[in-house]
Structures are given as structure tokens and as C-alpha cells.
Amino acid sequence: MPNVLVLPGDGIGVEITPEAVKVLEAVLKDHSTKLNFEYGLIGGAAIDEVGKALPDATLAAAQAADAILLGSVGGPKWDTLPAPQRPELGGLLAIRKALGLFANIRPVKMLPMLVEASTLRTEVVKNVDLVVLRELTGGLYFGEKGRGTNPRSAFDTLVYTEEEIKRIVELGFQTAVKRRKKLCSVDKANVLESSRFWREITLEVAKNYPEVELTHMYVDNAAMQLVRLPEQFDVIVTENMFGDILTDLASMLMGSIGMISSASLNGSKGLYEPAHGSAPDIAGKNIANPLATILSGALMLRYSFGLEDEAQKIERAIERVLQEGYRTPDLAKPGDKVLGTREMGNAVVEALK
Ligand code: IPM
Ligand code: MG
Description:
The chain is of the alpha/beta class and about 350 residues long. The protein has helices spanning about 15-25, 45-50, 55-65, 85-100, 120-125, 160-175, 195-205, 220-230, 240-250, 290-305, 310-325, 340-350; strands at about 5-10, 35-40, 65-70, 105-110, 130-135, 145-150, 155, 180-185, 215-220, 235-240, 260-265, 270-275, 325, 335-340. Strand 8 (about 180-185), helix 7 (about 195-205) and strand 9 (about 215-220) form a beta-alpha-beta unit. Magnesium ion (MG) binds near residues 244, 248 and 275.
């Protein structure tokens, strides 16, 4: 039986991960594949419990697991710790790096019944169907960083090796081949040397994919184009920080950051987590949207276990629940039937039947 390591983490992570587990168990109820769920500590919860955001036991369990489901990390309680010890850097970024999860896939697809939930006009968002491939273990978030004195200063460095760029860009092309065959590589090549290098490597990789239409876009323009005419995008591939920023922005095309799931992959190894954070302001109130985490569970079935039909069953069930007018508060409009976190999880389980 495949082992799934569940790392709820902090804040709403504790509330949303059980809903995803519930849905995964329900969809596999009559299936020959069953998942065995194990639990571990990460982030602030791990700091409180064992003094370290990524305990050795968690890393060992993650290395041994067939897949990992993660909630979210961080919160005001740990914000004053030195950066390397914080839940974000010492927990989340550390586990991504340790497992080599270089490819972060974030699908952004408009569901027709959520068109109204977007802050953008219907005609802008109604045809959105794109996927962002974010490089996840290099670039600005992992380069050398530090402080200087006289003058007081601080620095972060953005470094990419040829190999790091190649593997994510290749995955970008492969993803595009299976979709509408359009790849947009986002960079800042008018200013950054690392971006000029990224472009150079991308053009080299492109020679192997003549069927894919490759474009390059500066990241500032990409941000603008994503809200101006998002349907122009099919697959976007980009550097770690650019991808972090653009996917938060793109989440609003789907109506809420609570809808954007993600898979972080390294070959067959996968970690699945919502793209949103731990939302300390709404934690513990049973009002967080569990759908991004449930959708991340669907991605797990798809990418780690090859269970495409079951992944789609979850996606269809979510659509059915939304179709019936049920919403968590982040998506709700007057007249919608508002559900709490647990109740939304239950509704998805019901809809699977
Ligand atoms: C994300 C999050 C994380 C990131 C934070 C919590 C460190 O924003 O997954 O997008 O920057 O990668
Ligand atoms: Mg982010």
C-alpha cells in the first residue's frame, strides 16, 4: 500500500489537510489502490514541538513516502525568528530543496460557475486555462544571502545553472506538447543576466520541440497580460520568485487563492500543497477554503499514482458542489449557500457518490 506523508503544518493547514485526506479515502473506497496516511511535523508546529522547522524524522519520512500532502506553514508567532529558522525557509523551502522538487505545477483553470467570484470581468476570465511551471529549488530564494555593515546592507543572489534551467524548461515544453502547444517563458532579460542566460538555454531546448510555439515575456509585462488577456496563455515557465508572484496573481483569475492547487515534482517524487499560505487571520474558525488542498490531492492521484480517472472524479465532484451553489466564504456572493471548511469537505465526499 503506498504511503502518503501528511504534513498539516500551521494555521489553516491543520483544518484543510484532513478534508483532502477524507476526499482521497472516499474516492478510493472501492478501488484496489488504497493509501496509507502517516503524519508528521513541519513549520511552526515542528519548531514548537521539537525545536526545528524541518525535523530529521519528517525529512526521513518524506524521503521514504510515496507522496507528501502538505497544508501550509508560518504565522506571526514565528515571524521574529532569524530567517533560516523560520517555518518558510527552514521548513517549506528546506523540504523542497532536500527532496529536489524543482518543478512546481500550478494549474489555473476557470470553472464556469466561479466566473462571478473573480474580481475581474467575466469576459476577461471566462476562458482562462493555463498552467504555470515555477522553478522551485533555485534562483533568488536559494542563492547566497546576507547582511553587510557600513553601510548597513543586505543582499540576495539570483543564480541558475544550465542544468537547473534546462530541466524545468524541458518540462515546460513537454507540458505544452500535451496541451495547446504554446509555451511562454517569463524572465527579465532586459535587466538581469540570469534572465539572459535563462533565455539562451530556453532557445537551445526549443530546438527539440519545433511543434511548440515559444514566446518570451518580461515578468512585469506578464503580470499585466495576465489580467489584461489571460486566455493568451497556455503554459508559462519561469524562475522561482517570478512564479511565486505570478501564481498568486493568477489565482484571482479563478476567483480565490483558495482554489489554486500545486504539485511539486522531481521525477516520480511529489509533494502536493495548496499555493496559498497559512492564513493566520482566519485559522481555527472552520471558514478556510479546503478546495485547493483537495485539488492538490487530485494532482497526487494523477502524478504520483497514475490514477487519472480518480483525479478527475475529485475534480468533477468539486464542480458539482460549486454548481449547486455551495461556497466557502472566500468565494461567496450574496445568495450563495455558505459552507465551513469541514462541511465543504463533506459536500465533496457526498458529490463523489
Ligand atoms: C508558495 C508560498 C511559499 C513560497 C512561502 C510560504 C515560502 O508563498 O508556495 O507560493 O514562497 O514558495
Ligand atoms: Mg506564494
